[in-house]
Amino acid sequence: MTVQRFTPAGMLQPAPYHHVAVAAGTRHVHVAGQVAHRPDGSPVPSDLAGQVAQALRNTATGLAGAGATFDDVVRLTFYVTQWSPEKIAEFMAGVESVADETGLGSPMPPASLIGVEALFEPDVLVEVEATAVLD
C-alpha cells in the first residue's frame, strides 16, 4: 500500500479523519481547490451539505484524471465560509452522502477544516484541496 493512515495512541479519538498519513511513492498528485461547480454548468447547490458533496465529487474526478483515488490521498483541506461549530452535522452529512460513490473511506484521510470569511464567488460555501501520492 502506498499510503498508510492511522491515529496513534495519545491523539484525539474518535475523529472523522485519521491524524497521520505515511506515504511512499514518487508521483505526487495535487488537486486544486474544488468547489460545487457542476461540469454541465447547472446551478450549484445552495446548501452546505450539497456543496460539500459536489466538491468531493469534483475532487474524485480530479484524482481519477491522475490515476489516483481517495485511497491514495494523504491530505484533505476544506475551506468553509462563515464557519461555526454548529455546521458540523450538515458538513458531515455532505461527506457521508457521497462517501460510497466517491470511494472516500471513513475515517477520512488526514484533514483540516478551515473557516474563512469568503471564497472567490459569493455563492461558494466550501472548497476542497487534496494531495495524493502514487508509486
Automatic annotation (TrEMBL):
The top of its lineage is:
Bacteria, Bacillati, Actinomycetota, Actinomycetes, Streptosporangiales
Q: The organism sits in which domain of life?
A: Bacteria
Q: What is the protein name for this chain?
A: Enamine deaminase RidA (YjgF/YER057c/UK114 family)
Which ranges of the sequence are coiled-coil? none
Q: Which InterPro entries match?
A: RutC-like_sf, YjgF/YER057c/UK114
Question: Organism, per UniProt?
Answer: Actinomadura luteofluorescens
